[in-house]
Design a protein that fits this description.
single chain, 11 helices, five-stranded parallel β-sheet, binds magnesium ion, binds threonylcarbamoyladenylate, twelve-stranded mixed β-sheet, 17 strands
Length: 353
């Protein structure tokens, strides 16, 4: 692939019009612009231009059967992209958009197969980050955007993460600082009889149910179904993902036992000559006297854990650790969303104590 010059600009309320116009031009001409959303950074291209979305797959090294999410700035754009839209979709749009919710709907012919990985459905989201909304508006295009990381690496929550993975591969990065949430949107499929969560996220099943009644969760994404024959309905959920370079193992159980186990494992690995990283919490950080210890935040603040998760996985890469032990975080309302990412990062290696 030809190396591009990747231009990077800070974006906030003061950003000059020329920057927005340049970004819009790139998208209209079929190029790639990375931009902040409230969840993670996205790697954007014109969703209705098949050649443009093909460039996303090349830049990320992404398998071509893994469809992209189409970002819009006005809920009524759903009508342009999707058909047979159920009432529940309008209710969810009303309640949660702009925000971290992606809906799967039946696609109209205007959405090319290259954007949906050949599927008859399309994923649509209206983000709430002002820079994302502005980019969609000034470009005048619907923006197909996966997370702006190299396929398989942790999703980017800062512009530096995007630089690490995409420098020389895309035209522009809009730097909006750290994102607010830190994990990808909740995905809900509205094409069946009962709405189904395909990827857990910041918006929980309970929140969705309050708006539209019964909601299921794709059985393939629950940890008890590690069987290869369970194929997740969101193609992207089947890949090993978010993975740091070091070998990550989760330790799950009562806090004291978890700390004891990680201390023991760390001592053993150090004796083997490995560099060891530990993902601890504010509450337990002081209990580890060996290894490279990073606190993910307070166990009592789920938002903080979510916010720090991907950055810490990248930090572990920077520290060049060989093995990583992490505490587990399944208790809270968003425990399933956190553990879904961590389990995938760990290739499902868990020690129960
Ligand atoms: O928060 C987010 O959703 C971020 C930001 C940038 O908006 N985007 C994001 O995109 O996470 P990506 O490509 O990393 O993840 C999209 C997921 C994949 O698992 C993909 O398989 C699934 O959505 N997906 C997309 N279209 C689909 C469809 N028509 N049916 C089922 N799953 C779909
Ligand atoms: Mg992704």
């Amino acid at each position: 692939m030809k190396k591009l010059k990747t231009h990077i600009y800070k974006v906030d309320e003061q950003t000059a019009d020329e920057v927005w116009q340049a970004a819009g031009d790139i998208l209209r001409k079929g190029g790639l612009v990375a931009f902040p959303t409230e969840t993670v950074y996205g790697l954007g291209a014109n969703a209705l231009d098949e050649k443009a979305s093909a460039k996303i797959y090349a830049a990320k090294g992404r398998p071509s059967d893994n469809p992209l999410i189409v970002h819009i700035a006005d809920a009524h754009m759903m009508d342009t992209l999707a058909r047979d839209i159920p009432d529940a979709a309008w209710k969810l749009a009303d309640r949660f958009w702009p925000g971290p919710l992606t809906m799967i709907l039946k696609k109209k012919a205007i959405v090319p197969d290259g954007t949906t990985g050949g599927l008859d459905t399309v994923a649509i989201r209206m983000p709430s980050h002002p820079a994302a909304l502005k980019l969609i508006q000034v470009s005048g295009v619907c923006i197909a955007a996966p997370s702006a990381n190299t396929s398989g690496r942790p999703s980017p929550t800062r512009a530096e993460h995007v630089m690490e993975d995409m420098d020389g591969k895309i035209d522009m990065i809009l730097d909006g600082g750290e994102v607010g949430i830190g994990i990808e949107s909740t995905i809900v499929d509205l094409t069946g009889d009962v709405p189904m969560i395909l990827r857990p996220g910041y918006i929980t099943k309970e929140m969705l149910s309050q708006a539209i009644g019964a909601v299921d969760t794709d059985p393939a994404i629950l940890d008890e179904n590690k069987d290869e024959n369970f194929r997740p309905k969101a193609p992207g959920m089947k890949y090993k993902h978010y993975a740091p370079k070091g070998d990550l193992t989760l330790v799950e159980g009562p806090e004291r036992k978890v700390v004891e186990k990680i201390r023991k494992l760390t001592a053993d690995r150090l004796a083997d000559g490995c560099r060891v990283g530990i993902i601890a919490t504010q509450e337990t950080q002081k209990d580890y006297d060996q290894g490279l210890v990073i606190s993910i935040g307070s166990r009592h603040d789920e938002g903080e854990i979510i916010h720090n998760l991907y950055h810490i996985l990248r930090e572990m890469d920077r520290l060049q650790v060989d093995v990583i032990y992490s505490e587990s975080f399944s208790e809270g309302a968003r425990g399933q969303a956190i553990m879904n990412r961590l389990l995938k990062a760990a290739g499902h290696q868990v020690i129960y104590v």
